[in-house]
From TrEMBL:
Disulfide bonds join 16-80, 29-90, 60-70. The lineage of its organism: Eukaryota, Metazoa, Chordata, Craniata, Vertebrata. GO terms for cellular component: membrane. It comes from Melanocharis versteri. SUPFAM superfamilies: SRCR-like. This is NETR protein. SMART domains: SR. The gene is Prss12_1. Residues 1-91, 110-151 form the SRCR domain. Keywords: Disulfide bond, Glycoprotein, Repeat, Signal. Pfam families: SRCR (PF00530). Coiled coil: none annotated.
Amino acid sequence: EGRVEVYHDGKWGTICDDQWDDRDAEVVCRQLGLSGTPKALSWAHYGQGSGPILLDEVQCSGNELSLDQCKKSDWGQQNCDHIEDAGVSCDPFTGTDVQLCQSDAVEGTVRLAGGRSPGEGRVEVYYNGDWGTVCDDGWTDLGAQVVCRQL
């Protein structure tokens, strides 16, 4: 999560939050390779940037692979100040207040434990009334992707 900055013509710059919404955030998260619940944040939620404001009026459908494919103003054409810098949260727990209680767990439910943030940690699986760990023999990125999708 943070202020969204883009690199264009040899410079890093920010994006104005005019028309900025969760569909734009979805494209940013996808472009960064992050899963989760995309949430657009406005009014320099993560602080004001410096340097040029490179994009304005970004209007993604949500299906694009990168911001460059979205409808937007021409590079550098904007009417904003850094108080309007756009931000994004790709946090899988954004907007959810659900806490999984042990009594709510069903067979095969996964959780992450012992991590520094909710999106990382030791993989644990609920089975036969208990939480257990997963052995790393044969563990690959594909297994991690399945866990992330399940979470």
